Amino acid sequence: MTALVRAARAAFDDERADARYGLVVTGIDRGLRRCKLESNPDFARRYPEFIQYLKLLTLALDEKHELGFEVTDETYFAETSTFTAIPEFLLTATFLKAVRAFETLPQAKALLREMNAARAPNDQLLFFSYDSRHLGTPDNPDSFRRLLIVVPGNTALHKPEKWVQFGIADPGRPASVRNVSVVAVMPGANETTQVYFKDYYRTYRKDGSITVKGRWELGEGDDNCVSCHKSGVLPIFPVKGSVSTEELAVVEAVNDRFQSYGPARFEKYLDTAKFGPTFGSTRPGSPTTGRSSAASCASCHHANNMGPLNWPMESTIISSFILGGKMPQGATLGRAARMLLYQRLVNDYFAVDNKRPGILKSWLLGKNRAQNSTGR
């Protein structure tokens, strides 16, 4: 377990360690199977969390499970295609040409305003352009410009709400970004929200036409949705000054929309509880975390609220939210204090000391289970 947690920490800190992390995961999996430990009653009873966790981590390394789900990518896309399809009115030749480049983005927005003129008040598209503070697009890690369009759903008609995001090329580089992402949300049971994902790529043809097809269908692989989206939809915190004054209210409305969703669920495709406790959780055996509630990720980031922050996790998201001043909510901290908080949260989570293991290792060892059973 120590080797697994160390490899995860290295990959969290630096993506260049991903290959080594993969070797560690597959090596441990081979060892368990070779020794038949999964079928050993004593081992299975002592370490059910570890066995279940390793199975998910191993699956995510399989090229047929790049999305990180418990079914193959092929099965997932086949079964969720009705939810994740891009609305036809965003696929017209006119709109695709307008959204192709930064220079023509005003034309794309004018077309969206024309669409809204023909839509009912409760069916209005919410849209704005911005620069992301987190990640580049899947096809161009150096591209951070986006156009987000929230398309209202209709629960009565079983139509999901869709967050459709077009990557926008930098000025003078109209064909340098191809990505279009869809995150679809549907009300679920017990005030939860079912969430579905799909990435698409645009193909710019010599005759000037533009086609859109699923990234996976094009044979260009996919990314692990689980590493960024255990909370489902992510709130939008644009780079300061990247949103026009007249669109700032739309950003607020979109984030209000996000706040209205219930806790994220992923149907039969993934149970996020199998990834264990979140960053900021109390270590088993500790009477107190020694930190204010404002500094604790766990107060909001759990399965029945904003979703957990746990490995596998994209470190850029956590660091940018904390160091960028957006999290913890309500905390007034300087740059140095935020850096200290970030390092403390990461160290608490990935610590491997045998006498005082961190959050992840403690959970894998079953200490959380033992603590709950004794009522401590």
In short:
The protein is an alpha+beta fold and 376 residues long. 35% of the residues lie in helices and 13% in strands.
The separation of the N and C termini measures: 24 Å
Low-confidence stretches: 287-295
Structural class: alpha+beta
Radius of gyration: 22 Å
Percent strand equals: 5-15%
**Overall morphology:** globular
Helix content range of the residues, please? 25-40%
**Total number of helices:** 12
> What is the string of SSEs from the N terminus onward?
HHHHHHHEEEEEEHEHHHH
What's the pLDDT, averaged over the residues? 89
Q: Which structural traits does this protein have?
A:
13% strand, 7 strands, single chain, 2 domains, 376 residues, alpha+beta
Explain what this protein looks like in three dimensions.
It is a single chain. By secondary structure, the protein is an alpha+beta fold. It has two domains: 2-68 and 270-374, no CATH class; 81-265, no CATH class. 35% of the residues lie in helices and 13% in strands. The protein contains twelve helices and seven strands. It has helices spanning 2-13, 18-34, 41-46, 48-60, 73-84, 93-98, 105-117, 248-260, 315-323, 335-350, 359-364, 367-374, and strands at 126-131, 145-151, 161-167, 179-187, 193-204, 210-214, 264-265. Strands 1, 2, 3, 4, 5, 6 and 7 form a seven-stranded mixed β-sheet that branches. The model is unreliable at 287-295 (pLDDT under 50).
